[in-house]
């Protein structure tokens, strides 16, 4: 028997059919490899060539681009002739404009406080930058003026808490910063800022008003030549036109000067309407009748009207509103109207009164020629019940004009404590002019018989006279009378015939008519 031996190693055994299938696969793989090598070789050559062209183009002089649109023939060369290369000038990269500094002043007072801090610390550069933040072309002028005032002349600013918000004129809000002369302990001058809203800064300085004592600070600014041709030029300073000879220098950036933008600074030779009104109202807030009388034209504003306003301010404890306390509604060179907005914490109310100002010319001082007190008197009378006795200090007098009114408790002739304070102002009026006379009329409500009411009304008038004499007024200057219930201010009865206690309370009074 023959035995067949099989090898245990598979590698020795080959299947003839499998050998034939491997060869085509190897041919395909080899083809792919060769194709890949050819592709990468060609691509690398193309990339290197383009890179060399780009480097050469960057190093070559600037010429027209090969891909640019055809240029028109160079002037002087016929069409079709070789054209000279057109050089394109190098254009520097455009830098975006530097945005204005966003100072972000939310309130006008914030601008003033920052300026005071810079001036107090001696940082005049920062103060000038703040002043000229709305127009950087005025920075040099601002630096020159700041150095002149606060370095060369030695002026000082008061603390930031002494800044006053005066009010609004046109589209500006006015701040006042107190200034002290060298050696002074208390301020005697003030720097005023006109502030306007700015979209990016919140608030910015539009104009700085210097007192006339500092006019030299502007006169020392560098000069600019007059316009070519030697034509006479003018410089405008506080609405005065000052002619200058042909060819002479014009102070830099004085308002109205030729070839200059409006100056950041102005000299206040006289008070404008807003500043004048502020000083007048401040005298009222300090309950200083004698001082406030200096602001009025006494031929047009009766003394009793001014006295009544002083009394209202004191009794109601009014103060100026922190926002827009004064608003100039009409601003003409010789006539202005100002609204004064006030508030009273004790009465929980806000109200206002009007001032009419007038002056003969721009060189003259303003005077108060009219007081519209209807709003403030009405508001005060409405709230006076909170203080006990119905009260309004001014009433219409039958003889014309207005009288001061003092009110009494029911069936009493003794003065209310409030009335005594009113009489201090009246006494001051009488003592200032011995020729003045005072007429006092007492009144009652309708309760009681006529004879009793006449006696009661006369007693009320005599109580007023006695208080004035105690304050130093000669008895000969005071004339009294009792009118009983004959001249009521309010109704004693309602429409249905029932009693009207509120109306009767307005009739229990004494009226003071200043006959001068």
Task: Describe this protein's structure.
This protein is α+β, with helices and mostly antiparallel strands and 516 residues long. The protein folds into three domains: 108-224 and 233-268; 270-387, Nuclear Transport Factor 2, Chain: A; 393-516, OmpA-like domain (60s Ribosomal Protein L30, Chain: A), CATH 3.30.1330. The protein is built from twelve helices and 20 strands. It has helices spanning 16-59, 108-120, 124-131, 139-152, 215-219, 273-285, 289-292, 303-316, 374-383, 417-431, 450-470, 501-507, and strands at 156-157, 164-169, 172-180, 189-198, 202-211, 223-224, 233-237, 240-244, 250-251, 265-268, 318-320, 326-331, 335-344, 349-358, 367-372, 394-396, 402-407, 437-442, 478-482, 509-515. The strands form four sheets. Strands 1, 2, 3, 4, 5, 10, 11, 12, 13, 14 and 15 form an eleven-stranded mixed β-sheet that branches. It is elongated.
SSE arrangement:
Elements: H1 16-59, H2 108-120, H3 124-131, H4 139-152, E1 156-157, E2 164-169, E3 172-180, E4 189-198, E5 202-211, H5 215-219, E6 223-224, E7 233-237, E8 240-244, E9 250-251, E10 265-268, H6 273-285, H7 289-292, H8 303-316, E11 318-320, E12 326-331, E13 335-344, E14 349-358, E15 367-372, H9 374-383, E16 394-396, E17 402-407, H10 417-431, E18 437-442, H11 450-470, E19 478-482, H12 501-507, E20 509-515
Parallel strand pairs: 2-12, 5-10, 18-19
Antiparallel strand pairs: 1-3, 2-3, 3-4, 4-5, 6-9, 7-8, 11-13, 12-13, 13-14, 14-15, 16-17, 17-20, 18-20
């Amino acid at each position: 028997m023959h035995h067949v031996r099989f090898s245990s190693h598979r590698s020795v055994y080959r299947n003839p059919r499998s050998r034939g299938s491997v060869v085509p696969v190897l041919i395909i793989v080899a083809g792919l490899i060769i194709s890949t090598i050819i592709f990468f070789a060609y691509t690398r050559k193309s990339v290197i060539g383009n890179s060399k062209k780009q480097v050469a183009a960057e190093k070559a002089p600037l010429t027209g681009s090969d891909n640019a649109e055809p240029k028109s023939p160079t002037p002087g060369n016929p069409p079709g002739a070789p054209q000279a290369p057109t050089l394109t000038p190098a254009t520097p990269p455009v830098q975006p404009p530097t945005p204005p500094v966003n100072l972000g002043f939310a309130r006008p007072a914030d601008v003033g406080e920052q300026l005071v801090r810079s001036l107090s610390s001696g940082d005049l550069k920062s103060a000038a930058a703040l002043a000229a933040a709305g127009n950087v072309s005025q920075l040099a002028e601002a630096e020159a003026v700041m150095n002149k005032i606060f370095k060369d002349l030695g002026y000082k600013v008061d603390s930031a808490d002494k800044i006053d918000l005066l009010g609004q004129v046109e589209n500006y809000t006015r701040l006042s910063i107190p200034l002290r002369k060298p050696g002074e302990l208390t301020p005697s001058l003030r720097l005023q800022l006109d502030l306007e809203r700015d979209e990016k800064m919140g608030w910015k300085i539009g104009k700085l008003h210097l007192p006339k004592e500092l006019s030299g600070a502007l006169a020392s600014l560098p000069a600019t030549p007059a316009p070519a041709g030697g034509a006479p030029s003018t410089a405008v300073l506080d609405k005065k036109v000052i002619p200058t000879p042909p060819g002479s220098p014009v102070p830099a950036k004085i308002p109205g000067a030729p070839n200059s933008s409006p100056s950041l600074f102005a000299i206040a030779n006289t008070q404008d309407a807003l500043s004048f009104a502020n000083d007048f109202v401040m005298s009222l807030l300090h309950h200083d009748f004698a001082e406030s009388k200096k602001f009025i034209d006494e031929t047009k504003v009766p003394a009793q009207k001014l006295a009544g306003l002083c009394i209202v301010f004191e009794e109601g404890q009014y103060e100026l509103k922190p926002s827009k306390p004064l608003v100039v509604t009409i601003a003409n060179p010789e006539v202005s109207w100002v609204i004064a907005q006030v508030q009273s914490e004790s009465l929980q109310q806000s109200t206002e009164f009007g001032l009419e100002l007038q002056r003969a010319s721009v060189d003259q001082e303003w005077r108060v020629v009219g007081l519209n007190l209807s709003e403030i008197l009405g508001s005060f009378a409405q709230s006076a019940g909170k203080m006990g006795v119905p009260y309004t200090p001014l009433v219409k007098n039958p003889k014309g004009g207005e009288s001061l009114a003092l009110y009494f408790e029911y069936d009493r002739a003794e003065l209310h404590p409030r009335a005594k304070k009113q009489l201090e102002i009246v006494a001051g009026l009488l003592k200032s002019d011995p020729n003045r006379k005072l007429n006092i009329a007492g009144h009652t409500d309708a309760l009681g018989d006529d004879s009793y009411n006449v006696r009661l009304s006369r007693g009320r008038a005599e109580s007023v006279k006695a208080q004035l004499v105690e304050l130093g007024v000669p008895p000969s200057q005071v004339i009294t009378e009792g009118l009983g219930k004959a001249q009521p201010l309010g109704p004693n009865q309602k429409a249905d015939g029932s009693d009207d206690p509120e109306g009767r309370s307005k009739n229990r009074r004494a009226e003071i008519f200043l006959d001068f």
